[in-house]
């Protein structure tokens, strides 16, 4: 397996890859080298047929405290524009397989945006979400403004982006930013995220990929287009062995044995 400097990768379950951001001295600030490693690890997992879902986490203190401010501070417009600074962050949103963010501690700036790029967010009671870029004289650049507005609505997104206020796990749950807050205890949120990933990985990978694709379409298409897209993908699944197997297993009162074909 590949050796990384800023992340750790493991297989807590045969079907699940766990990626842990590991730059503790900088609270997992998302430097360019860290992000290259993260993209590489995620792309490898996405291509691996034995993997059904990925979990992304940080430390107890910080999921990630944002893009690396020390790396950014002296950059000029010409550098960031010409070199498309941080644009490869968006690669995460192109992956086929689900990614679950397990968030403890700070998820700030790019860290909050990174969590929002994942498909499901589980939070520990210690999680704190925020977009403090306004305090640095800038604004979110990794999709925070758009994804927050779509997720929590205009007034809350404006408050977060314009004041930089940090939102607690409980508030994030109430606002629909995270699917749920798990119990206290060290490592609890990661265990729960791995359990969700394992559950997803037990399904037909084709159906899971299709499910992710159609839910994401809801953020880009009109309702009429989205409904048509969903119906077409649904129809298409009747061409798969997994549809035949899943429905036969139900009728025969047995567990389905999906072959991802
Ligand atoms: N970048 C670089 N270093 C950081 C960052 C960061 N974002 N966050 C923390 N660190 C470093 C600190 O500098 C410190 O290093 P050192 O020990 O060498 O001084 C170390 O981590 C520990 O941090 P603190 O001593 O500050 O720890 P505290 O517990 O006192 O405070 C906080 C924790 C509140 C999280 C504090 O560290 C903080 O405010 N960090 C910055 C948060 C922030 O502003 N984040 C937004 C960054 S901008 C951004 O993310 C833009 C994203 C654009 C994406 C574009 C994609 C296309």
Give your account of this protein's structure:
- The protein has 261 residues and is α/β, with parallel strands linked by helices.
- 43% of the residues lie in helices and 15% in strands.
- It contains eleven helices and ten strands.
- It has helices spanning 32-47, 69-72, 77-82, 110-117, 144-152, 154-163, 169-174, 188-201, 205-217, 223-236, 241-251; strands spanning 7-13, 16-21, 53-57, 62-64, 99-103, 106-108, 120-123, 128-130, 167-168, 180-181.
- Strands 1-2-3-5-7-10 form a six-stranded mixed beta sheet, with helices on both faces. Strands 4-6-8-9 form a four-stranded mixed beta sheet.
- The mean pLDDT is 97.
- Octanoyl-coenzyme A binds next to helix 2, strand 6 and helix 4.
- Octanoyl-coenzyme A is lined by residues 26-27, 29, 65-70, 86-87, 89, 106, 108-110, 113, 132-133, 136, 141-142.
Spatial ordering of strands, largest sheet: 1-2-3-5-7-10
List the ions, cofactors and other small molecules found in this model: octanoyl-coenzyme A
CATH class of the largest domain: Alpha Beta
Order of secondary-structure elements: EEHEEHHEEHEEHHEHEHHHH
Specify the CATH homologous superfamily of the largest domain. 2-enoyl-CoA Hydratase, Chain A, domain 1
- Class of secondary structure makeup: alpha/beta
Q: What is the straight-line distance between the termini?
A: 27 Å
Radius of gyration: 19 Å
Shape: globular
Task: Work out the strand percent.
Answer: 15-25%
Main beta-sheet strand count, sense and barrel state: 6 strands, mixed
